[in-house]
Amino acid sequence: MMDFLHTLGVLTIQHLQNNYREYNSFLSFMSTVGDPRNVFSVYFPLWFHLSHNVGTKMIWVAVVGDWTNLILKWILSGQRPYWWVHETHLFQNSSKPHLDQFHITCETGPGSPSGHAMGSSCVWYVIVTSALNFARSSCVSSVRSFQRFHLLRSILWTAFWVIQINVCISRVFIATHFPHQVLLGLVIGMLVAEAFDHIPCIYNASLKLYLQVNVFLLSFAVCFYLFLKLLDFDPLWSVTKAKIWCANPDWIHLDTTPFAGLWRNLGALFGLGLAVNSEIFIQSCKGKNGCKTIFKLMCMTANLTFLQLYDLIKMPNHSEALFYILSFCKSASVLFGVVAVIPYCVHLLIREEERKLRL
Predict the structure, then answer these.
(1) How confident is the model at residue 264, as a pLDDT?
(2) pLDDT tens digits, residue range 105-124?
(3) Residue 37: its pLDDT value, please?
(4) What distance in Å separates the CA atoms of residue 340 and residue 207, rounded to the nearest whole number?
């Protein structure tokens, strides 16, 4: 069965690469759109200051979703097309298919389910459902209002599926995933996002709860990793294959390894918990300025600028342990800065301007 799916997948990739090569730039962009790291650098900074609950839910969904993806990858041990096509014995040497590789092809983790498809679907599911819930709550009881709501719902869900389909196609096009892997990631991502609709405790969680969840996610992942090692199974087998079959060694990045994503997500969740339970967050975002449109716009603008500059900081990758620690610290500082530090600075600025106007 898997040989059939893999062979069909390779033929699909060949068809896409041979017939849609002129869309390479667009598909590479869509693959970037689906990158789970965009949650912390783009989606969250915008949505958190529009709605604290939506932003909070987005981080929880992204972190738990990516952690679920990691565990499933270790369980399913899915192949990736760019190395499978070289190692399979289903083809003769003369008839072995050729798959082009790109600078974003050489992911180092197992292939199933797709992390990009899963991350994109869960985050955009949160965005669409939250927007519809807001529209539904502000909808008055009239025929015209219901018609506008149904039109909005159709537009948003159409946009959702257009984005997800393009993200999935892009991951197949660059030969980093088989079609069944992106479909599985798409479905699981939506299920994870839907599950958090029924967990309201995340919106007022204490720092203790954030720490407990962090410890659980880390300890479970480490214990599961050690359990697999005891079974004489190397959970990092895919990293070796990536290094062997990637067309360009420079395309292999340490931040695509399984543990890099884990530490990055744990740092983000810790940073969020630290921020929303801090005094400066309460003073700025929960005070009178927190409801002002100018405050929200200034926070969003300052956050996006801060993150673009912060992203220029490159972490040393000569040591994996150091890289993981710095990934945790960087993610935690990003979330703490976006949620607490920058809003507090904006709050002080507005307060100072109001004081000058009163003089």
Answers:
(1) 93
(2) 999 999 999 999 999 999 99
(3) 86
(4) 14
6 is catalytic: no
Q: Which of 49, 116, 180, 347 is catalytic?
A: 116
Over residues 248-297, the pLDDT tens digits come to 999 998 888 888 999 999 999 999 999 999 999 998 888 777 788 898 99
The CA-based diameter of the chain, rounded to the nearest angstrom, is: 84
Average pLDDT of the residues of the chain: 91
Active-site residue, 116 included: yes
Confidence of residue 141 (pLDDT cuts 50, 70, 90): low
Bond preceding residue 113 cis, omega within 30 of 0: yes
Catalytic hit among 49, 177, 180, 347: 177
The total number of residues shown for the chain amounts to: 359
